[in-house]
Every structure is written in C-alpha cells, then in structure tokens.
Amino acid sequence: MYDQYDALIFDMDGTILDTEPTHRKAWQQVLARYDLAFDEETMVRFNGSPTWRLAQFITETHGLNIDPHHLAAEKTTAVKAMLLDNVRPLPLLEVARAYYGKRPMAVGTGSEHSMAVALLTELGVQDLFSAIVGADDVTLHKPEPETFLRCAALLGVAPERCVVFEDADFGIRAAQAAGMDVVDVRLL
Questions:
Q1: Which residue positions in the chain have pLDDT lower than 50?
Q2: Are 15 and 185 in contact (CB under 8 A)?
Q3: I need a surface site. Which of 54, 65, 138, 162 has the fewest CB within 10 A?
Q4: Which three-class secondary structure state does DSSP give residue 80?
Q5: Count of alpha carbons within 13 Å of 167, Cβ hemisphere only?
Q6: What span, in angstroms and rounded, lies between the C-alpha atoms of 154 and 176?
Q7: Of 3, 6, 11, 181, which one is the catalytic site residue?
Q8: Which residues, in sequence order, are bridge partners of residue 13?
Q9: In terms of DSSP bridges, do strands 88-89 and 105-108 run parallel, antiparallel, or are they unpaired?
Q10: What pLDDT does residue 138 have?
Q11: Which residues are bridge partners to 89 per DSSP?
C-alpha cells in the first residue's frame, strides 16, 4: 500500500502507541497539585508538540508563576511512573511490522527520545525502526519540519520520498512543511 515510498516515518503517541490517555491522566495529576483542572479538548490541540509547549500555555493561561519547563518536568515524571504499565500498541503498528526489512523506518515524536526508546522497547518493537527522533533531539518542534527532516536524513532518504503517519494537526503541518506525503491516521 505504501510501496511507492522509500521510507516510512511514524509519529508515536496516538499513532502507533496508545499513550494519550496516560498523558492526559499525568497532566490531571500534576495540575491537581496546583488546584487546576484543564480541558482535555485544549490538551488534544497540543498533541504532537513537546510537553513544555503545553506547560507554557497552561502557565500563561492561568497566570502561574511557574517555569513551564519545571511544570513539564513534573508531568514527564508522572507519565514515566505510569506509562510503561499502560502502553498498548495501536493497529497502525502492523504497517510498520509489514514494512520491516522492506523499507527503512523511523519514529519522529514530540516525546523525549529516552521515553520513546523505553516505550518501543517495552512493546518489543524498537528494532522495527532504524532511527528515533524525539523532542530533545531537535530545536524546532512540530509544526516545524525539523523532526521529520532529521528522520529522513538519518534514514538517508530524500524528504519527498518519505511518507509520514500522524494523528495530530501539528505533526501533519510539520510533515507537509518537510515536503513529505502524510497520512492522517485519524481518517483511517
């Protein structure tokens, strides 16, 4: 089905791994410490972006005098404590399994590199991917194209010969800006 591409690039959270409910639960847990509740619909708009970006939005919206990177670190600690026990593969992971050994593949995620490696290893699928690019591997995050351009470079494939699988608007815009075809997995 994707034989016309030289490489496949997958977002991770919400695309190949069902981690979104755990991320939301971690945010709820952290925000409760500050007597805050946050609208899940707003959180979903930040899917694909690094954690600190949502933390910055939260601190600005609520007028909190907290470093957004500190708030993001609290959330990351909370999610790490529960995620490995709760992560589940999503059906799209079968595409990666089907193309393993046939096309080079990468993961380009808004999660930290170490978290991506831990989750993919926990599910026994890290070896499917030749490269992993996390939020801490790039300077300009989704919706900027750097994540996916770095994936293509690590795979040794021209961006226009790659297809990206994404579940978030930020990621779709990043793939398009990189000159790559994109599959919006929410429509599958």
A1: none
A2: yes
A3: 65
A4: helix
A5: 20
A6: 19
A7: 11
A8: 17
A9: unpaired
A10: 96
A11: 17
Cβ burial 135-159 (10 Å sphere, 16+ → b, else e): bebbeebbbbbbbbbbbbebbebeb
pLDDT of residue 36: 86
**DSSP 8-state code for residue 13:** B
pLDDT given at position 4: 98
Alpha carbon distance 52, 74 (integer Å): 10
C-alpha to C-alpha distances, 182 to 55, 159, 171, nearest whole angstrom: 27, 11, 9
Which residue's entry shows tokens 């089905």? Answer: 1
Q: Specify whether 39 is catalytic.
A: no
Tell me which residue has tokens 């930040």: 46
Q: What is the torsional sign of CA 162, 168, 170, 173?
A: positive
Going from the C-alpha of 6 to that of each of 9, 155, 159, 179, 184, the distances in angstroms are 10, 10, 9, 14, 19
pLDDT score at 42: 79
